[in-house]
Amino acid sequence: MKLSELKNGETAVIVRLSGHGGFRKRIMEMGFVKGQEVTVVLDAPLKDPIEYHIMGYDISLRRKEAEMIVVEGTLYPLLIRQKNQGLLSYRWEESPQGPPRKYYMITEKGRQALSEMDNVWRELVQTIDFLRG
User: Which residues fall within 8 angstroms of residue 93, CB to CB, at 6 or more apart?
Assistant: First the structure.
């Protein structure tokens, strides 16, 4: 998926930069490097430029420039954030069909957080049921 394909508010992780020379150097100096999380802040009404949030900065790129940046979908940034919070861990396994695969597992801290969220959800459902009569 290309960075230019994300919609307002969507987040992704940079996988690869296309292009070379001055463009590649300039874009990397702005923080657009492999593994970096980037969020679309605003897609201009005429579709150019697009404003992104990366490394604490808001940066505008032309759509043609954003088309040269390959990103992963929004699931992986969520998994990475949860791993960084200690809610998930992962392991790599060799695959007979292609590259090694990453498998995520919930940690004890993640189970506790899930239990807390489940309790909040149940209370919300009970409240809504009560209000509905």
Answer: 100, 101, 103
